[in-house]
Amino acid sequence: MNRKKLVTEMGRIDxxxxxxxxxxxxxxxxxxxxxxxxxxxxxxxGDAFRVERIMLCGITATPPSAEIHKTALGAEDVVEWQYFxxxxxxxxxxxxxxxxxxxxxxCQGSIALQDFATHPGEHYAVVLGNEVKGVQQVVVDASDGAxxxxxxxxxxxxxxxxxxxxxxxxxxxxxxxx
Length: 178
What we know:
The protein contains six helices and seven strands, in the order H-E-H-E-H-E-H-E-E-E-H-E-H. The protein has a single domain, classed as Alpha/beta knot (3-Layer(aba) Sandwich). The radius of gyration is 16 Å and the shape is globular. Helices cover 32% and strands 20% of the residues. Helix 2 runs parallel beside helix 6. The longest helix is centred in the last third of the chain and has 15 residues, at 160-174.
């Protein structure tokens, strides 16, 4: 029988160790994400895979927030974050710091997530868009490319927090964390 692990058996690190730990060379940019639950979920996934930081842009809410905390469960207190009034300002800051920036969007010429190749020593940023409008076209245009998650059903999109989980997991695998 498979017994569930106790929290004490999971080898989790504390906040101080998290702050000092090596981070996945990935920044997650939220472009006008309106749901605070989605924001909290991205923080929680960001904590699980030790993303470098999260950039909250435009109408995306920022901590402290009871609604963000409801899904982040404290991850918002350990994952580094920044707020930018404009997603383009965040993209410009990342570009100055040498990041390769990819919009997670359905675009002509996009790369399927499973086919996207990372390169050792590179730092990456992924932009996730608004729940209805997606990533702004101006941001897509300013990106190094677009990554698309293939879908086979009747809907044309996934929830932004689900998308974040899939993308962060794939980057964690490709960058050698798992």
